[in-house]
Amino acid sequence: MTLIPxxxxxxxxxxxxxQIREMFERQAPYRAxxxxxxxxxxxxxxxxxxxPVLPWFRGDWxxxxxxxxxxxxxxxxNKSFLEAARSAYGTPLVCPEFVAVNINGPMPAGTTHIxxxxxxxATRVGYPLPFLRVMGFSGLFEPWRVxxxxxxxxxxxxxxxxxDYWPEGLDGAMLSEQPPFGNxxxxxxxxxxxxxxxxxxxxxxATPRMSAAAQIRSNGDGxxxxxxxxxxxxxxxxxxxxxxxxxxxxxxxxxxxPGNLTLDRIMSIFTADLRHRKVDFxxxxxxxxxxxxxxxxxxxxxxxxARKGG
Length: 310
Fold this sequence. Notes:
Blueprint: E1 8-10, H1 17-26, E2 30-32, H2 33-36, E3 56-63, E4 66-67, H3 73-76, H4 79-89, E5 94-104, H5 129-138, E6 148-155, E7 163-166, E8 175-177, E9 185-188, E10 194-197, E11 215-218, E12 223-228, E13 231-237, E14 242-251, H6 263-276, H7 291-307
Antiparallel strand pairs: 1-9, 2-3, 2-11, 3-4, 3-5, 5-14, 6-9, 6-14, 7-8, 7-10, 11-12, 12-13
Helix pairs in contact: 5-7
């Protein structure tokens, strides 16, 4: 596996930070992360505790290298971000991919995780996220991994809300960026570096009653509200909301290559490894839609990684 590059701190992150900050209100509402980016499939045959949906929301401001909301071009083509990514990876071949934003109300710490990977020939365009995640956890597809630079910046001055990360792996020390956040950003590889959002606000505050169908929006009076089915589930003052921006760029030559992955090739690699492990399995007719197949891969690769602590 390619070594994770040294983190680079970017300051100032934006020429006009307040202009970027104001975009959050203009581009509302935002969908719950629970609906936007599921972490994996749930095995309905297994009893498990029910976890509440956290007040964590997300939106896309740029996708596939193109801005999709007004003002996102300034973030996507941010010169400081491009320079940091080029320096971190030692190459001029940096191709901005997308800009996503996270909006968090008071909540417990988020799950420690790595971001969803992409591979040459297998990306979220055409492949479900749970399938891509098990490809990443398996370690079988590293020669095809799309190496990506990630840059994160934050807008929050309240209590808690740190960005916690483990640059040397989960067995190493945890480092944190703490609020109040100035005009700062961090260049890292969050596809391979474990990280999380620290607890935000009062750690004893009740989690609002909401499902993955909830949305959050600005009320225009300095407050933000979570709504679901026309009902207000929670309202917070602006200073209690943690806003963040995630910028990602592909590193290296992205030209089509006959050696890129295909679904047949992926299946051949998975099945060979499963046979080597002496795992009993049945070949799926549609591996990208067969829940039992993806759950099997999840148990073999993702769950085993979690048990080992990453």
